[in-house]
From TrEMBL:
Its main location: membrane. This is ABC transmembrane type-1 domain-containing protein. It is a multi-pass membrane protein. The keyword Membrane applies. PROSITE patterns: ABC_TM1 (PS50928). The keyword Cell membrane applies. One of its GO terms (cellular component) is plasma membrane.
Length: 263
């Protein structure tokens, strides 16, 4: 199943990279009669403005993946950095960083991201930053837990005894050994970020000049009973990629934890 997920995600990446080249078009252009059913004129039908749903999905793939991967990388960078520092140094530093983490943890991430975007801008960079600064707490706690466990092991003590500096201990000794559970969490984070991006787009809180799957659903939601295809096909795209990423995460979990297979 993990291999199937990897193949499907690879297809989405291919569509995001080369779809606009293979199907050159304007996703906002009216190309058919509004609310046309799926058929030869428009493979997945058209929405209430006569825009081709298939072309919209093709052109919405790249922004969705770019936002998801970039926001995830930033989330991971923030979470791992704070978690590593807290877990390695402990004491007052740990207490302060964990109180900050708890503060962000009690705030609903999606609502917090909505406020940031609404206050500042719907630009894609702001959307990425809004998602990143509101969703890093899980990675921080996981990293801290791994560091607290690993820093007491013999090989870390040996490296410290021969004079290894703190930065080297963190980056070269402890972090590589803490990566297996983090890799699984990072993989699943991509899927969660796609859902957050889709929610923001659905609410109209992303760049109006950029087509995304969530935006397609949001724009057509009032016409669901008249044109189910304009909502269903973008929704299926979101469901598929999130499900496939989850399958990859399960595969990685089995690979890193072979004792859990079959349970």
């Amino acid at each position: 199943m993990a291999l199937l997920g990897l193949i499907m995600v690879s297809i989405f990446i291919f569509v995001g990279l080369f779809g606009p080249i293979i199907f050159p078009a304007d996703p906002f252009e009216m190309v058919a009669v509004p609310l046309s059913e799926p058929g030869a004129g428009a493979l997945f039908g058209s929405d209430y403005m006569g825009r081709d749903v298939f072309i919209g999905i093709i052109y919405g793939t790249r922004p969705t993946l770019v936002i998801a991967t970039t926001a995830t990388l930033m989330t991971v960078l923030i979470g791992i950095t704070l978690g590593a520092v807290a877990g390695f140094y402990g004491g007052m530093i740990d207490n302060v960083l964990m109180r900050i983490t708890e503060f962000f943890q009690v705030l609903p991430p999606l609502v917090f991201a909505m406020v940031i975007v609404a206050v500042f801008s719907t630009d894609i960079v702001v959307v990425i930053l809004a998602i990143a600064v509101t969703t890093w707490t899980a990675e921080a706690r996981l990293t801290r837990a791994e560091f607290l466990k690993i820093k007491e092991r013999e090989y870390v003590m040996s490296a410290r005894a021969i004079g290894a500096r703190n930065f080297r201990l963190i980056a070269r000794v402890i972090l590589p050994n803490a990566m297996p559970p983090l890799v699984i969490a990072i993989t699943l984070r991509v899927g969660i970020t796609i859902i957050y991006e889709a929610a923001l787009s659905f609410l109209g809180l992303t760049d109006p000049d950029v087509m995304t799957w969530g935006k397609m659903i949001g724009l057509s939601r009032d016409f669901f009973f008249d044109a189910w295809w304009s909502v269903t096909f973008p929704g299926v795209a979101i469901l598929l990629i999130v499900l496939c990423i989850a399958l990859i995460g399960d595969g990685l979990n089995d690979a890193f934890n072979p004792k859990l297979r079959g349970r």
